[in-house]
Amino acid sequence: MALPLYLVGLSHKTAPVEVRERAALDPAVALPAALSTLGRAVVLSTCNRTEIYGVGSPKEAKALLLARGVEAHHLYQKEGIEVLRHLFRVAAGLDSLVMGEAQILGQVREALFLARKYGATESLLEKAFQSAIALGKRARSETGIGAGAVSVAYAALDLALAVYGDLTGLAVAVLGAGEMAELFLTHLKAHGVGRVLVVNRTVDKARVLAERFAGEAYGLEALPQVLRQADLVVASAASPHYLVHPEDLPRRSKPLFLIDIALPRNIDPRVGRLPQAYLYNLDDLRRVVEKNLKARQGEVPKVEALIEGAIGDYLEWYAGHRVREAIRALKGLAYKEVVREYPEADPLTWHKEAGRRAHPWILAVKARTKDFLQGPPCPGECPLLAFRPPRL
Amino acid sequence: MTAVSLLALVGVLLLAVGLFWPRGLFLGAFLYLGAALADAFAKGFFSGPAQPALVLGGLLALRGESLLLRPRLTPLRRYLVLLAMLLGLFALKALPHPGGSLPLLLTLVHAGAFLVAYLALAVGVGAGVMCAMQDLRLRSVPEKALLSAPLWSLRRLEQGYLRVGYLAATLGLTSGMAWAWGYFGSPLALDPKEISVLLGWLGLTLYFLLEERLQGYPRMALLLLAYALLLFAFIGAPFLGSRHPSGLGF
């Protein structure tokens, strides 16, 4: 007997963003409605994919996605073991836009929780998703599929850690007050940097950003003074010429880490030749990202092996599950037949009978203890200890 | 083979095993120190170069063992263990040398200072070379720098140990020259040990003077040259014959 699982969905590999937008199911409104329509199903809806995993026939799931304006050629459909393989690949990050990214694991978990909340899971789906979540964790801890930075901001952070080891208490200067500056500051602050010095042509804009990170705001005229205090410099200001020159940097014994992500660049490349200065631009960061992605690609066979192992485990469980279900059905049938023939053999009847026989005993105990519980403490031997229940 | 030599030999073997089995480092270090103690009771304290070599080797192995929980410093740990093994082999060669007891003050000040100097310089130079390599990686192939020990951690390790090593070497050198002046009538002679120590010390002095200007390969080369000269003075020069009591007279 084949595994009765199905999958219908679309992802960044089969559909452009405008189609994915239409297919996405809002977790507050559209998703509960979809789950109540589909019955036994789990819906994984992220910015890169909308997938419906279910048990039984995929017709309704397919109709649901087509009704949202998705064309049939954008959809893929899988059944049986292929559903498991796909789900495990998704949870391990092999099917993600950025291979090995960790966010998808949380999204798979969230999809399972939502399905549970609306009572849409059943044992096959529950087990499949739990196995997928466990596999996703194993893949990230036992292989290098999630290792290394794959975004420019994280690559910069990794380089800063390669220089300093620990960023706690270091002073960071940010040139510019745009989105990139904010993104870098968020990451750096999460790693414990101490002082935040924001330098911008417009001091008011610098102040807004500085206040968010409990930092200090300066105008461009204060740049040399700020550079003297900084251990890390992130340059992202819109400027047609260099803002930082080698002459602006004092001789120092501690390293100075500089990231120039502005275009045109903010920092004169000659700064990188100073003895204690480590200067990186966007190309350097992209090189780090590419190398990490290549390294992740090399880990795919290891993850595939884990996936095949997890599929084997699931099928072992499924074989036992089928036997258990058959035994349960047989027991149910036998019970019905027995009760039909001998109504007094029904356990429910036993429970009623036991309650009926215990009732006078409970009443006797209540009557005997009523005075005692309401009155003062007994002076001599406790009457409760002498109490013997009536023989039933 | 004497019992002391046997202890030292087993120590060397345990250190070799310790490269793969961490407990071996601990056991090997204790055998080294035990062998040095046994030899000291038999011949007198620091009577020849074997004892300081065993003590230094044991302490280096223990320092290597203490780095087990810092995987990014594995190259430094391996280098310290290999150096300890080299010192053990040198001690095996020097142990049969009869030796003789030295004045207590000289033993404490001169030999003690050099023991501290060699210990600190071994760690400092190892960290310094790793630091220079990390500096080169960060400048030319930053993607390869991500898995190595952080530059600033290495630099702090290097600076601390090298400073202590340099001060101790200076004390050892000046006390040795003072003793040679009193004993032989001249503080310095054309002796391979004395010349190599002096050149090594000058190399270290130059390194500290140019510390902020030197980067990359020149920095690494100067540090290694100075250290190689000092190491040669300890385990190479005794074989060439020397007026120093550690001369093995081969």
Automatic annotation (TrEMBL), chain A:
Entry superkingdom: Bacteria
Residues annotated for NADP(+) binding in this entry: G176, A177, G178, E179, M180, A181
EC number of this enzyme: 1.2.1.70
Gene Ontology terms, MF aspect: glutamyl-tRNA reductase activity
Record-linked InterPro entries: 4pyrrol_synth_GluRdtase (IPR000343), 4pyrrol_synth_GluRdtase_N (IPR015895), GluRdtase_CS (IPR018214), GluRdtase_N_sf (IPR036343), NAD(P)-bd_dom_sf (IPR036291), Shikm_DH/Glu-tRNA_Rdtase (IPR006151)
Keyword Oxidoreductase included in the entry's annotation: yes
Keywords for this protein: NADP, Oxidoreductase, Porphyrin biosynthesis
Positions marked as site (Important for activity): H86
Pathway terms, separated by semicolons: Porphyrin-containing compound metabolism; protoporphyrin-IX biosynthesis; 5-aminolevulinate from L-glutamyl-tRNA(Glu): step 1/2
HAMAP family: Glu_tRNA_reductase (MF_00087)
Domain notes: Possesses an unusual extended V-shaped dimeric structure with each monomer consisting of three distinct domains arranged along a curved 'spinal' alpha-helix. The N-terminal catalytic domain specifically recognizes the glutamate moiety of the substrate. The second domain is the NADPH-binding domain, and the third C-terminal domain is responsible for dimerization.
Sequence similarity: Belongs to the glutamyl-tRNA reductase family.
Function: Catalyzes the NADPH-dependent reduction of glutamyl-tRNA(Glu) to glutamate 1-semialdehyde (GSA).
Summary of subunit composition and partner proteins: Homodimer.
Other comment: During catalysis, the active site Cys acts as a nucleophile attacking the alpha-carbonyl group of tRNA-bound glutamate with the formation of a thioester intermediate between enzyme and glutamate, and the concomitant release of tRNA(Glu). The thioester intermediate is finally reduced by direct hydride transfer from NADPH, to form the product GSA.
Protein name per UniProt: Glutamyl-tRNA reductase
Species the sequence originates in: Thermus antranikianii
Automatic annotation (TrEMBL), chain B:
InterPro entries: Cyt_c_assembly
Keyword Coiled coil: no
Pfam (any one): Cytochrom_C_asm
Keywords annotated in UniProt: Membrane, Transmembrane, Transmembrane helix
Keyword Transmembrane helix annotated: yes
Transmembrane segments: 50-69, 76-95, 107-132, 164-183, 195-210, 222-241
Domain Cytochrome c assembly protein: 84-239
Protein name per the record: Cytochrome C assembly protein
Organism: Thermus antranikianii
